[in-house]
Amino acid sequence: MIDPHIRMRHIHCFLETARLGSLSAAATTLHVSQPAASKTIKELEDILGVPLFDRSGRRLALTTAGKLFQQHAGAAMIDLERAQDLVREAPRAPSRLSVGALPTAATFLLPEAALRLAEIHPECLLRVTTGPNWMLLSQLREGALDMIVGRMPPAGAVEGLTFRQLYSEKVVPVVRPGHPLTRRDWDLRELGDYPLMLPPSGAVIASSVRSYLHSIGLTNVTPKFENVSLAFGRRVVQQSDVIWFISHGVVGAELEAGTLATLQLEGDLLGGPVGVSMRDQTMTSAEQRAFVSILLETAKAHPTRMNGGD
Predict the structure, then answer these.
(1) Which domain CATH number covers 252?
(2) Domain HTH lysR-type spans what residues (predicted)?
(3) Distance from the CA of 249 to the CA of which of 36, 234, 235, 241 falls in 20 to 30 A?
(4) Distance between CA atoms of residues 185 and 183, nearest Å
(5) Which residues form the domain of 217?
(6) What is the pLDDT of residues 79-93, one digit of tens each?
């Protein structure tokens, strides 16, 4: 039985704080004062008897209990909203699928699959959300997203989630056509002679890129830019000698068109699985199942385009 002291304001405040990682941001979103939001979270923690947030860092982080509560409370809120909509919008509300898209899947895989879904389920509204990995994972856990399409979540963020791999993809160093390093043989350490654009710390591929640079002797690298956005990265790289380490899927179309080029590295030292993340032990809709199948078919039909192979 639900504790009678738990109110909807407790749930709303908790979920917003977990999603935004900040009490002040959650208070702004909920149109309440920060002291009121802080009091509400404290009340909920007292009712549950456990701390839900680790307050030791600059950003509020969920404790293990907080992650568990977010996963189930968020899903329950989504179910309540759907029940409300079904009752209000009789006889039947249009189906909806909410998908989080990381940059590596947003430029080709997801658009291709979305068009195919529209053919099979024309009544389904596909809502696509882009953003940093931590934000999409938070929204997935609380039920605001049905799935995320992109890189496999880091090891510490997979609790309560399932991951189905679609393909394996390289991370590549991207430059403008005619970059000095494309015209001659070069040593890996020369990468440090040019300005670098690296994934920000919140990106899934950030640690592997840093580890690779460290392995070839480029320690304590200070990048000129941190970015995974195609629009920004493409423009900067095309107008400079910047070397951009990015997932192949983000720049695949540009590489095919010849507006960007890759530098060849020895071996496949950079890369990893791309796939679909969903909440564990949840009922999946017909649209969800259909979309996962479509994503698998799309990835299988375009292996070279997906993984950056020759």
Answers:
(1) 3.40.190.290
(2) 6-63
(3) 241
(4) 7
(5) 168-272
(6) 788 777 767 765 555
Give yes or no: residues 161 and 281 share one domain: yes
- Cα 153 from Cα 102, distance rounded (Å): 11
The percent of residues in the chain predicted with pLDDT above 70, rounded, is: 92
Q: What pLDDT, on a 0 to 100 scale, did the predictor assign at position 24? A: 92
Contacts 24+ apart (CB under 8 A), 20-25: 21/59, 21/60, 21/61, 21/134, 21/138, 22/59, 22/60, 23/60
Measure the CA–CA gap between 74 and 78, rounded to whole angstroms: 6
Indicate if 44 and 34 belong to the same structural domain.
yes
Q: Tell whether the model's pLDDT for residue 94 goes beyond 70.
A: no
- CB burial class (10 A; 0-12, 13-18, 19+) of residue 226? middle
What is the phi-psi region of residue 281: left when phi exceeds 0, alpha when psi lies from -120 to 50, beta otherwise?
left
Specify whether 249 is located in the same domain as 303: no
Domain boundary among 75, 92, 109: 92
Whether residue 183 sits in one domain with residue 45:
no
